[in-house]
């Protein structure tokens, strides 16, 4: 599942790259927002859903677990419609502010209108998947993702370039392929939950604020953390655009896409971490929950650090898949050589963020994400104005990742979940 989900972005970017630099830059402008939506629906709010259901089941509250399914669908359905409205209304101004102009801006809007127009499919699919993961069922969500990728592989080039009676849609075709794959996944997962193949089942229940709060107490705070990650990439994209123009944005966007592809890889470990930690916390097994979290963090570090080191040593092997423009290759390679060796710290911090969702204690992940944002964006902006060099901007990004991973590893291993006041002042979540 991890490999299948990560390959979606790779496949789509590879096909779009053949449309030219403007199309690649346009996708780079949309990608942070799209990934933010994926991370919110699957990792943040989705993590809140899984955590609430896992804690209910761990505490023997089967009735609440069933009722939480309906509450999860209400929450994610509302968010899906809200995302569609916001992006369709503010998208043009947003992409222009991030450096889009001319052909790259037109490409961004053509792709964005489609994928965000179908946003509710993504949110509902991840609601059903999160319910299943909260019960410990990783198989059905994985199967649905793999089926979606199998559909995307031939559908994306068919809709982009056309064949026979199917007209060529360009970059908009890539958007339609994503929406179609997510719609199929939604149908599969909905069938699994509604037909009773889930421990937590969809039943009609009176809507209760206590159950909404059970999900949102974790999901809302986790959403702030997700916004921090996306804002970091979006603001540094604007810095790169100011320094080097659309070609540099294309190179930076292609490089950061590898960083974003680490998210589904770590999510493959993070989803079971939410369920395992949440169930053990609900059952009063705090020491075991902590061992699970640290084991998952170590595994995530090894996987993501290996990918980062390979990318830093051979950046052209990744970048060359998407184009041969010299400026694009130069910027992307500079990013990967500097930031790639710190990917392990990103994987470590992200896995502990998922584990903290299971524990219902997200103050420290939020604080770590804030530190990363300040160091990466603030430090990068200062570095650019002082040196005029993108290399120092990328150094600030790398420093932010290291701080993020180290802070979360230190505070989690020290038992911060179990102390009376473990979160930094002002960041404690409502219990």
Automatic annotation (TrEMBL):
Keywords, A to Z? Cell membrane, Membrane, Transmembrane, Transmembrane helix, Transport
UniProt keyword annotation of S-adenosyl-L-methionine present:
no
Give the coiled coil ranges.
none
Q: Where are the transmembrane segments?
A: 35-57, 69-90, 110-131, 143-163, 169-194, 215-241, 261-281, 293-314, 334-355, 362-384, 390-411
Q: What is its main location?
A: membrane
Location relative to the cell: Cell inner membrane
What membrane topology was assigned to this protein in its record?
Multi-pass membrane protein
Instruction: Specify the protein name.
Output: MATE family efflux transporter
Task: Supply the source organism's classification.
Answer: Bacteria, Pseudomonadati, Pseudomonadota, Alphaproteobacteria, Acetobacterales
């Amino acid at each position: 599942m991890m490999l299948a989900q990560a390959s979606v972005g790779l496949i789509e970017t590879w096909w779009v790259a053949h449309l030219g630099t403007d199309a690649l830059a346009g996708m780079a402008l949309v990608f942070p927002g799209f990934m933010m939506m994926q991370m919110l629906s699957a990792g943040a709010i989705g993590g809140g859903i899984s955590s609430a259901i896992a804690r209910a089941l761990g505490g023997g509250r089967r009735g609440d677990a069933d009722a939480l399914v309906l509450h999860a669908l209400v929450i994610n359905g509302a968010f899906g419609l809200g995302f569609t409205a916001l992006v369709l209304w503010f998208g043009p101004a947003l992409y222009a502010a991030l450096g889009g102009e001319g052909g790259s801006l037109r490409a961004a809007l053509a792709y964005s209108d489609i994928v965000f127009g179908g946003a509710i499919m993504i949110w509902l699919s991840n609601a059903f998947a999160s319910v299943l993961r909260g019960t410990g069922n990783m198989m059905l969500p994985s199967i649905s993702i793999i089926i979606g990728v199998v559909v995307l592989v031939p559908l994306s080039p068919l809709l982009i370039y056309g064949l026979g009676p199917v007209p060529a849609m360009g970059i908009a075709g890539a958007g339609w392929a994503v929406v179609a794959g997510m719609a199929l996944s939604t149908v599969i997962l909905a069938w699994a939950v509604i037909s009773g193949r889930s421990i937590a089942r969809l039943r009609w229940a009176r809507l209760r604020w206590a159950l909404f709060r059970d999900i949102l107490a974790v999901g809302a705070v986790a959403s702030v953390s997700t916004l921090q990650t996306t804002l970091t990439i979006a603001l540094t994209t604007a810095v790169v655009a100011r320094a080097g123009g659309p070609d540099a944005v294309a190179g930076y966007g292609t490089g950061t896409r590898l960083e974003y592809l680490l998210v589904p890889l770590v999510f493959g470990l993070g989803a079971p971490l939410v369920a395992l930690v949440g169930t053990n916390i609900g059952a009063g097994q705090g020491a075991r929950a902590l061992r699970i979290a640290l084991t998952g963090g170590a595994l995530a570090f090894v996987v993501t650090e290996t990918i980062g080191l390979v990318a830093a040593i051979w950046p052209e092997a990744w970048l060359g898949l998407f184009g041969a423009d010299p400026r694009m290759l130069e910027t992307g390679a500079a990013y990967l050589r500097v930031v790639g060796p710190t990917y392990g710290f990103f994987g470590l911090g992200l896995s502990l963020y998922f584990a903290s969702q299971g524990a219902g204690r997200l103050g420290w992940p939020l604080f770590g994400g804030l530190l990363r944002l300040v160091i990466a964006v603030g430090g990068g902006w200062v570095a650019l104005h002082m040196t005029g060099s993108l290399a120092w901007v990328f150094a600030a990004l790398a420093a932010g990742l290291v701080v993020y991973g180290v802070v979360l590893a230190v505070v989690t291993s020290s038992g911060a979940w179990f102390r009376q006041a473990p979160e930094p002042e002002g960041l404690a979540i409502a219990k």
